[in-house]
């Protein structure tokens, strides 16, 4: 299903189509419905640009204990490979 929003609706909201898509992507990320990758793909932004958009809105990057353990595990693997 494609979503079509009439130009008059965008004009009434004083927003461009790109801005609306970004707002939707940010909301979906903040609400936990989209991952960072999914949201930035929807917004068609690279990682840093999307993170800057989050920062403008005082939305923090979601990073939990499981993410920390995954990162630590990956670092150990990299260190082991370098030591070999």
Characteristic terms for this protein:
84 residues, elongated, mainly alpha
Describe this structure in words.
- There is one protein chain.
- The chain has one domain.
- The protein contains five helices and no strands.
- With 84 residues, it is mainly α.
- α2 runs antiparallel to α3.
Multimeric status of the protein = single chain
Task: Please trace the helix and strand order, writing H or E for each element.
Answer: HHHHH
The level of helicity is 55-70%
**Major sheet:** none
Summarize the structure.
The protein has helices at residues 7-13, 17-30, 36-43, 47-56, 65-83. With 84 residues, the chain is mostly helical.
Topology:
Layout: H1 7-13, H2 17-30, H3 36-43, H4 47-56, H5 65-83
Helix pairs in contact: 2-3
